[in-house]
Amino acid sequence: MTLFLAVNSLVFAQQQKPNIVVIYVDDLGYGDIGVNGAVGVKTPHVDALAKNGLNFTDAHSSSATCTPSRYSLLTGSYAFRNNAAILEGDAPLIIDPNKETLPGMLQKAGYKTGVVGKWHLGLGRGKIDWNKKVPLGPEELGFDYSFLIPATGDRVPCVFLENQEVVGLNPEDPISVSYGTRIDGYPWGFEHPELLKMHTDPYHQGAIINGISRIGYMKGGEDALWVDEEIPFVLSNKATDFIQENEDHPFFLYFSLHDIHQPRVANIKFVESSTMGPRGDVIAQMDWCVGQITEQLKTANLLENTLIIFTSDNGPILDDGYLDYARELVGEHQPGGEFRGAKYSVYEAGTRMPTIVHWPNEVKPGTSDALLSQVDLYRSLAKLVNQKVEKGAAPDSENYLEAWLGKSEKGREFLLEEAYTFGLRMGKWKYIKPKEAEVPRWIAQKFVDPGFREEVQLFNLDEDPSETNNVYKAFPKIVKQMEKQLEKILK
Question: Does the pTM exceed 0.85?
Answer without folding.
Answer: yes
